[in-house]
Amino acid sequence: MRRPRRLSTLISADELLDRRGDADPSITGIAYDSRDCRPGCVFFALRGAHLDGHRFIPQAIAAGAVAVVQSAPLSADGAPGTAVAGAEVAGTEGSTEGSIAAGQPAGEQPAGVVRMQAEDPRRLLSRVSARFYDHPARKLTVIGVTGTDGKSTTVYFLYQLLTTLGYSVGFISTVAIKTGADIHKNTMRQSTPEAPDLQSMLAEMAAHGFECAIVEATSHGLSPRTSRLADISFDVGVCTNISHDHLEFHGTPEQYRDDKANLLRALDRAEADEPAEIAGRADPAGRSAHERDAYRGANTARPRFAVLNRDDEGARSLAPHTAQPVLWYSLQDPEADLFGDELQEELDGSSFTLRAGGQSARAQLELGGRFNLENALAAALVVMRLCGRSPAEIAPLLAELKGVPGRMITVTELDHPFTVIVDYAHTPASFEKLFPMIAARTPGGIIPVFSSAGERDIEKRPILGEIAARYSRMVILADEDPRGEDPMAILQAVAEGCRRARPEWRTGDELLLIPDRPTAIRAALQAARPGDTVLLLGKGHEGNIIYADGSIAWDEEAEARKALQEYDQWQLQH
């Protein structure tokens, strides 16, 4: 449990536009969801894409909040003004705060509660969270991994390599989280948690004596619109690739790249300058400001560098955004810092030669797909630089790497007449890599089951359909996460792309629209012929399917095995 902090040690006057109340309460926690408020907490009222946290200030106070931060002006008596109807700041994925409509009066607040107005509560939330948890990132070597695809896999590869070499490591990814002794599944459906959750996790890692923290840094988390990662001191920044995704949030491809570049900019960022009245106080550990500055100085000796994919134009575009050394990995450029040469690929793995600094070593990876190899090279290069290891020392470790749950999982046995694979691929770039690889190793045809998420990048929907149809014998479209959208409308948008590539296709024959995913999977198995490959895409590790009225539990691999067992039993009976 965190030691309480006085409000004055967390928020200074020059960070506020207005304040009502002279008290300096003891703060026991930070909340941005009124349902998480406890006695003594400070509540941040955030405006989201669908909901306005200002509506929940009375509930937060009733639950024990002793301080409130908001963007709406304070009224004359200190109560919050009415929020602007329809105001929204996107990027609150996964955040759900009831269903009170924007514009409803927030109500009076009782005396004794400190009320504060900030220009950007999200930015302040990040700062306050870092202060409350004593800047845990400064006590760890923090590796950030970004990219359109491959982030979770690279995080997991890094964790395995560093752990094998004897380092104590924690990580936060879309798939799983490790902050203590055990790895547990990430159930938040949020790759990069909100700032208080993230800082809490890093603090737990530091408390366990971890040396390294690996953080999946999404474009949402890197954006100043959410500021989730704004107060993380990154030592290493990795970018796997940048392609088309999340334009519903970033607006343009240029903005998407620029937000990704914030990871590299963070490498140059000096330790956050604290407001004078905050920096002058002794911290909870009893260190004076002078001692704290000495600690910061000592940590500047950590190596700071970026690792980028030389073969990806999007990743290359990030290089100018840091003054720190940039290291390159490649499967094409012999001049890269780490070059994967003499590549021999199979569906279930690859062998290659690692070349770096005039040294070389033969290596293999027991995971199929060139994307897995690229991610392994990224992780290997980070570890070689960070830990001072040679290709000969790293090569044997690559053969032991395990894949991430929900990625390239073959459900069928080798002697089955057709193959069923579960994978998380859900972007145009991942489709462009996956389908040619599967097509080259499939004697029959490909039958993919997929769609695209609701309330997310709508431009990629027909692109996904076009890529899939180009390589497939037939396509079955099924719900992914419709959220508040009409499920069939999403499938129709993807189907338009299918027809671009295959205008001769008829709906009901080569193109099936089956919103119910269990039914769609069974339809794919019934349609499969000997030599075919059935690809179940887009859900991977995710534990639910989100609809407008809530979510249903989901396990893609388990459902695929269940459907396959039913199919095999039916075959025996007929």
Kindly state the percentage of residues in helix: 25-40%
β-strand percent reads 15-25%
Alpha-beta content class: alpha/beta
Secondary structure tally: strands: 26
The first-level CATH class name of the largest domain: Alpha Beta
Name the shape in a single word: globular
Tell me about the biggest sheet?
11 strands, mixed
Going by CATH, the architecture of the largest domain would be 3-Layer(aba) Sandwich
Q: What is the terminal separation in angstroms? A: 61 Å
Can you give the mean pLDDT?
A: 86
CATH homologous superfamily caption of the largest domain? Mur-like, catalytic domain
- By CATH, the topology of the largest domain is UDP-N-acetylmuramoyl-L-alanine:D-glutamate ligase
Which strand order do you get reading across the main beta sheet?
A: 11-10-9-12-8-13-14-15-16-17-18
- Uncertain residue ranges: 81-107, 281-300
Counting DSSP H or I runs of 4 or more residues, the number of helices is 17
List keywords for this structure.
11-stranded mixed sheet; 574 residues; 32% helix; 3 domains; Protein-Tyrosine Phosphatase, Chain A; alpha/beta; 6-stranded mixed sheet; 26 strands; UDP-N-acetylmuramoyl-L-alanine:D-glutamate ligase; Udp-n-acetylmuramoylalanyl-d-glutamate--2,6- Diaminopimelate Ligase, Chain: A, domain 1
